[in-house]
From TrEMBL:
Pfam family, one: Glycos_transf_2
Taxonomic source organism: Roseateles rivi
UniProt KW keywords: Glycosyltransferase, Transferase
Highest classification ranks of the organism: Bacteria, Pseudomonadati, Pseudomonadota, Betaproteobacteria, Burkholderiales
Ranges where the Glycosyltransferase 2-like domain occurs: 9-169
Transmembrane is among the record's keywords: no
Keyword Transferase: yes
InterPro entries: Glyco_trans_2-like, Glycosyltransf_2, Nucleotide-diphossugar_trans
Protein name: Glycosyltransferase family 2 protein
Cross-referenced SUPFAM superfamilies: Nucleotide-diphospho-sugar transferases (SSF53448)
Length: 269
């Protein structure tokens, strides 16, 4: 492997059970594409969880374990990992999910073949806490369709994305004031700077989802991201999207969860 890796994986961790960490980090170690480094920023407050994470990372010299001395939060953890990354391609991943073996190989090949694309995502297989599949999610593949639909919903699955490091350097990375929807804020900001997006059709990550209900503050930050990044492109869609999210954010949580469950049932069919 070259001194400078091709890919840096950005992996935040927080109080994950050891068996979950084992599945997640092992799925990175077992990638068919091997020219990578993995920066794990572990903010665990549970000593046992932190020790387990450090122990697993020590098994592979491509892994770098970091335990910050102060609480950073998810955006701050990602920014720290980005600041330490050496590779030209950065891959996002969560410490409770599972990468399919070809994940990096497929996305690296796509980015090498598509120099005009700055960010590429992929499909998800949703799994429950026991690892059982519950549904699949696929996302639009072309940049223009991703941009249009992004005005209403999420068209990139954050734990699956790979993006070019120079974009984060030029246009900025995550805003640490966003406790939720930090990815939406980033995509909308980069979209306004002309960054092109794509998704490969493949399911490349198993995404662990214990519940369908969003945190109550998620929609407030979602709305904030849309308002602060408001721009002239897709103008009518942006206005309609802000109106829809604003209305959705005031609906009772049980109503929101019922809608999510209905959507998941349709996806399963």
């Amino acid at each position: 492997m070259a001194n400078t890796p091709k890919v840096t994986l950005l992996v935040p961790a927080f109080n994950e059970p050891e068996h979950i960490l084992e599945q997640s980090l092992s799925s990175v170690m077992e990638q068919t594409f091997t020219d990578f480094e993995c920066i794990v920023v572990d903010e665990s407050t549970c000593p046992e969880a932190a020790q387990a994470c450090q122990r697993i990372c020590a098994r592979d010299p491509r892994f770098h374990y970091i335990h910050p001395t102060e609480r950073l939060g998810l955006p701050g953890s990602l920014n720290l990992a980005i600041s330490l990354a050496r590779a030209p391609l950065l891959a996002r991943f969560d410490s409770d999910d599972v990468c399919l073996p070809e994940r990096l190989a497929i996305q690296v090949a796509f980015m090498d073949a598509s120099p005009d694309v700055g960010v590429v995502g992929a499909g998800l297989q949703l799994i429950d806490e026991a690892g059982r599949p519950t549904a699949e999610r696929h996302y639009p593949e072309r940049s223009e369709e991703i941009a249009r639909k992004l005005q209403f919903t999420t068209t990139l699955a954050h734990p699956t994305v790979m993006y070019r490091a120079d974009i984060a350097k030029r246009f900025g990375s995550y805003d640490p004031t966003f406790r939720f929807a930090e990815d939406l804020d980033l995509w909308l900001r980069w979209l306004n700077r002309g960054v092109k997006f794509a998704n490969v059709p493949d399911v490349l990550v198993k995404y662990r989802q214990a519940q369908t209900r969003r945190h109550p503050n998620h929609w407030r930050f979602n709305l904030r991201a849309r308002v602060r990044n408001f721009g002239p492109s897709h103008l009518l869609r942006r206005i309609a999207g802000i109106a829809c999210i604003g209305t959705w954010s005031i609906l009772p949580a049980p109503v929101q969860e019922s809608v999510f469950r209905f959507i998941l049932l349709r996806v399963r069919r």
